[in-house]
Amino acid sequence: MLIVVSAVLFALTRLTPLSPARIVLGADATAEQIQAFEHDRGLDRSLPAQYSAWVAQLPRSGFGQSYITGRSIDLELLESLPVTVELVVVTFLLTLAGAIPLGLIAALTEDRWPDHLIRMLSLMAVSVPGFWLALILVRVFAVKLGWVPPIGITPLAEGWHAHLASLVLPALSIALYYIGALSRLMRAAVIEVLGQDYVRTAHSLGLSRGLVARYVVKNALPPFVSVAGMSFGYMFGWAIIIELVFNIPGLSRALLTAITQRDYPMIQATVLVVTAMFIVSNLVADLIQRLINPRLRHA
What we know:
Distance between the termini: 23 Å
Largest sheet: none
Order of helices and strands: HHHHHHHHHHHHH
Strand content: under 5%
Structural class: mainly alpha
Number of strands: 0
């Protein structure tokens, strides 16, 4: 998948008519200067030759250097990636903390008022655009109430409390959508398991409610884990948008700056890192599924 994404991305970035040499050298650059710039970076070669050279350099020198800053792209990613990863991890933990209990409560109170209330709120959560929700949260909790900073990330050096407080609104802006979606999935999975014969048999044999609930949750988790794993990967895409709203110096700033400046190597590296995160999160979700569901180990 990474090979396909990298090849398509490489071709798309080269389709833009404006050469990065115009941005680096300025509008007054002569044709000779532009030609020399493109020759030095191999931009005057054929597309397959450029792609082959780029792939060949990855094991030796990483993603190379930025056209604009001249800095190592690996170092620039090491500065911005941890911010995005931290935001996504906090978002994912908030999602699990909200979706699992809400899904269980809705399933155990099926067709009663708690179930109706949770389903209505989850529907609202998945219907509201994330960036609009982010602006509303900033307006209410940062501007009106002053509980958290409106933009940016407070450095960890100023304390854990201040640092986590600055992450709450960006993480919540993404997490509410997934809490709505995954709580509905958890509810459906638990209801399906509750209707199976072995659960009724367990009740009739007088097994304790705690023991039965343990088996119900365990058997309802595989589909939830699968979708939650994919959601973790999708959260990186959401994070890029939300980082822009909250002016967070993560991958979004690096990517948008690179797109604006036609910094091809930086665009390729950033998108590939996000894609790799998506693939890894899916692999981890598959492994967890196999751990909690022994039947999948022999599939």
